[in-house]
Structures are given as C-alpha cells and as structure tokens.
Fold this protein.
Amino acid sequence: MKATCWMGKQHVEVVDVPDPAIVNPRDAIVRITSTAICGSDLHLYNGFVPTMHRGDVLGHEFMGEVVEVGPDVHGLQPGDRVVVPFPIACGRCHMCEKELFSLCENSNPNAWMAEKLWGYSPAGIFGYSHLTGGYPGGQAEFVRVPFADVGPLKVPEGVSDEQALFLSDILPTGYMAAEQADIEPGDVVAVWGCGPVGQFAIASAYLLGAERVIAIDRVPYRLQVARERAKAETIDYEEADVYDTLREMTAGRGPDACIDAVGMEAHAPGIVGAYDRVKQAAMLESDRPNALREAIMCCGNGGTVSVAGVYGGFVDKFPMGSFMNRSLTMRSGQTHVHRYMRPLLERIEKGEIDPTFIITHRARLEDAPRMYDTFLNKEDECLKVVLSA
Amino acid sequence: MRHAQAAYGSEVTGGRTPEERLAIGLGWFSIGLGLAEAAAPGAMAQLVGVRDNERTRGLLQAFGVREIASGVAILRSNPDPEWLWARVAGDALDLAALARALDDRRSDRQRVLMSIAAVGGAAAADVYAAIALGRARREPAAAGRRARRRGRGEGIRFTKSFTINRQPDVVYGFWRKLENLPRFMRHLASVEVIDERRSRWRARAPAGMTVSWEAEIVEDQPNERLAWRSTEGSTIRNRGSVRFVPAPGARGTEIHVDLEYAVPGGRVASLLAKLFGEEPEQQVADDLRRLKQLLEAGEIASSGTPAGLRSPAQPAPRGEAARLAGKGERR
C-alpha cells in the first residue's frame, strides 16, 4: 500500500510499504478514506520529537471503512464506516476506567522508553514516534487499529467524512482545552494560537459559556478566521503588546482562563525568541515555551491555564513565581479523545458545530509531501489539509 | 565523621559498610593532602624530598586542587567507586612525578623513596576500596542482603512490583497455573508441571542456548503468596516468591516479586548476559508489564512492525504478522 513516511527532517515521502494485517485478537484493519495533517505532525516534520526512524508511517487523524476484524472485536464489522481516536486505549485498565484514555496503561509497547523521559508512560499513539509505541500511522491506504472494540466510532450516514474526520483529534483537543479552562458565566478566555486547535478551542469556549474569547496570533488570515468564523476578538502579537492589550480589554482583571494552543515551537519576537531558538538548537532546552510563559503571565489572579499545545521535554525560564503567588491552576494532557467523540458527534449532527470551516486544502494522499511544506510555511493561507486516499 | 557526612548530604542511615567507611576515609585523606599541597607547596616539596622551585610549587598546587576535587567527589557521591578509580589515576600521576624526581640529582633520594612508598600504600588502599565498593554496589541493598545470601556463588537478588487491575484470585490463579508463565516471561521457553509441587523450567540463555532446572513450590497460600525454589542439584540455583496484595481503593492487585538466583559461570556469565542485553531486573519489569497487559487487555501490545525498535514503524508483511501476536516489543 501507499503510505506517507518520515524520511528525515522536513522530508516526507509517499512510498510503498506492506499492507497491515491482524496481529492481536482485538485488532481491526481500516481502509482509509480521509486523513489530515495535524499541527503536531509538524513537530515530527521539523525533527523536534525524539525516537523517529527513517521510514516511520505518519498520521494520527484518519477515518475509513473497516475491512477486517480480529476474533475478539465485538460490535464492529467489515463495512462499518468509522473515525478512529489518535490515542490507543485498551478500555480495561485503571486509567481507561477513569476515562483518562490517553493514559492507557496497556497500549504503549515501548512504555519503558517513555518512562525514561517522562517518569511514567502515556498511551500509545498512531504514527507519533517510537516513544509512544512505534505504531504505523494513518496517512496511508490502510491502518491496523488495536483495541478496535474500544476506539473507533461508527459514523452515521448523514455525516460526511469532512464533518467527522476531526473527531479523531483536533475537535476533541480544542474542546478539552476549553473544558479544562473551567469556564464560568461571565468569563473572559484568551487563546494563544489560531491554528485548527485554537479555532476549535475558541468555538468550544463559547459553547461552554464564555462571555468573551480573545485570540492571539500573528498570521493575518488565521486571525481573520478566528474573528469571522469562530467569532473571537483578536490580538496580533507583532502589532501590540499582548499583556497590556489583554489587561486593557479586561479592565485590569486579566483573562479568567488562558489556553495555550501553540506548544513547543512557539515563535517569539525579539531577544526572547532568539534566546529560545539558540538554546533549542544547542539542545539545552527541548521546547520553546513562549506562548506558555505569556499565558501564565497574562492570566488573571486565581485563573486557569489550560495547555493543549504539545510539549516534548524540558522548558526554560518557566515563570513559577507568577504561577505560585497568584494561585493559578494549570491543566493539560494528551486528549482523552474517546470521552468526547460521541457527544461532539451529536453536536455536529445537531448543527451546533460545523468543524469543516477550518479546511483550506483538499488533496490526494500522493500530494502529502507538498502539503506538509505548504502547511509548515503557511503558504496559500493554509490552515488545514485533508488528504483522501 | 558523622557530622561531615551529613554536611555533604550523604545518607546517614543505620551505619556504613566497612568498604564505605574506607572510601570515606580516603576521601577525607584526599582533601587534607590537597589542602596542604595547595596552601603550603614549599613545605610539601621539602617533605616529599623534591627540589623546591616555582615549577614544582605550581605542579604541587595543581595536584592539590586535583586531590581536593577527588576527595569532595568521593564524599558527595555517597561514595561512588568511579571516583575512587579517579583517585587511583591520580596516584599514578603522583608516582610518575616522583619517579622523575628520583632521577633529579637535586632531589633528596631518601625522602622521595619514602614518598613513593607512601603513595604506593595509598594507591593500594584506593584500588582495594574501589573494587570492594564496586562489588558491593552491584548487589542491590548490599549489606543486609549479602548477609542473607547463602552459598558461595555470585548471587543476584531483587524485588519488582506492579499493580494489575484484576482481583487477587484472578492474578494468583493465572500465576499458579505455571504453564502460563512463558506467556509473559520472555526468557522462559516452557514450564512443565510434574506434580502438585514440582515443575521443570526451560529458559533461553544468551547466544541461542537453553538451560533447564527443576523447581518445587515451598509455600502456597492461595490468593496471597506463592514461593518456589530450584531443587537440590539444579544447575541454576534460584528461589523466588510472589505476593498478591489487594491494592487500595479497588485498584486491583499489587504483585510483589522477589527473586534470587546464583548465576551459572559466576561473574563472567553475568557480565556476558549483560552484554547481550539481558539485564535480569529490567527483564522482570518487562515480564510483569506483559502480565498486566495480558490480564487487563487480554493481549500483549504490539506495534505490528517486524522488529520493534530496530525497524521503522511500517506494517510487518502479512506472513509475519501472525507471528508477532503475544510477543510484544523488544527493547
């Protein structure tokens, strides 16, 4: 089959690899119909995630048709149309019972490796380095889905691929970011990053009762989408000082909650940005946490900082004093996608959310290398790429 | 001494082993000697019998700084045998310098020879302490466990624990059916039950060999504890126990495994095994994780790629896929 493979830093190729087969009794094989490139794929593309191997099949946002199931998969049959969550979860361990699916204790075959870097291991993830399991991803024609009786959600006929696809990751991720912000009536929520997750976090914050949502980015067309489609007020951080502007916009209170939808490759103007780039290049810090630092400093007293952006290792100049002295709360985590898929599907069916508004590019699987480049460089006003296989 | 240890942040729990006390003594000796060399290089030059000029003073001061550094490192590292080896290297430097001084007619030969004898003595003590400490550190929780070790062979003993989200009777029941063990203990090829108490175990050894031994159950408290040991005359002498303890708050069962075995071939074989990547403690940790996966998820997680870490994350060819079931990943 054809699959999008990571071949090195900023180098992906669509090549022929063996078709996947059933390995374990709870596996299913899915023929991919639609798959997307995620912002977090760009961290892999840029070589910032360790334990990638030349030839790794990428992709953790995908959906398609079940073509084969293992003997222990009940409730799923060949022919079913499904969308698959990006974390792999067994559904039976203590963490899965607590619905913390992205912390499944049984799905990362390389858990020992993650334990070395992080202390304990999170769940396995499709197409996302060997640290999270070395599972072949879904930017391909077929994919093997472990624990298929737990993850895949059947998609009703009336819902299109483009409407359902983002249930695999970014829609639940944006939603969980807003949910973890503990929004109360009257709250002002600030969102760093107007990529797809940021857009969904803005929309979700309104759904959860935010009074105002203020979005921060520097890319004009992304700020425009945030204003026009997600209905946020916006700040261009290259035009205005973010702290001063937020403080004025909230009459001195500061936002009640701040969402980091940027992660480890934040851009920053001036000396601070240069500082982090140098330290990252010299491997003295693995992540550039500028959005996170700013979210903490800007958050109003007693507020919540919700971190949806991906971090990999260690950050520097973390404003712990601001965090501690002002009784802030920080919440984070890889998204527990399984928990949100069904309720969000219902919202899509009822028309409360139309996640398709972020799609700017539609292409064939073979076009993946060009599309990675377009997405990375924000060419052609690219916000989200959907590939059809 | 106690006071000093606390000042350097070392543990002061229940006394030191003799080799640790020796190492700490050497650390303080190092610091004392180093301070003397650094502060009074002229007097030191006279004492050891080398000519006293700018060059030797500078050299002695540099050696002094080295001595202080290695002394502090020994004390701070609680003490780590590596730093004692560093001292041994320093002793070699000292001896080399003194040997050169012997050829210098402006040296006091008598004093230099005595200095060589003194440094040689210190070097011998350093080598002894480094070896003894290294040996003690390789065996976990050295003192108490060594006291309990029986026989003469080089023994390995360790404990490993895991929590499994299943009731103790389920976990015990699975383990008690000894034929199940090779399903999650990767180094086991088979376990064959002979009778209620006795069983024959066959294990994969490094370099494609197998070894086998007979074991007998010495304690069996259903759902609580199981203990076994190899029978008299086995080539691999070993004993082990596993406790099944209800985990708090309905989190299933804590299993606590305690293993001890004599390694055939002693140290050399143990070293060889490590070269082949068969670290016993790590192996048991991996085994217990596979047991957890089997009992909770019903299967052992696999990326479905041909050789795990050593291959890119691409599907295994269809023929190979079935072979991967139940194996999980290799480190």
Q: What stands out?
A: The radius of gyration of chain A is 20 Å. Chain A touches chain B at residues 3, 5, 17-27, 53-57, 72, 90, 92-94, 97, 105-112, 124, 127, 130, 133-137, 144, 146-147 (CB under 8 Å).
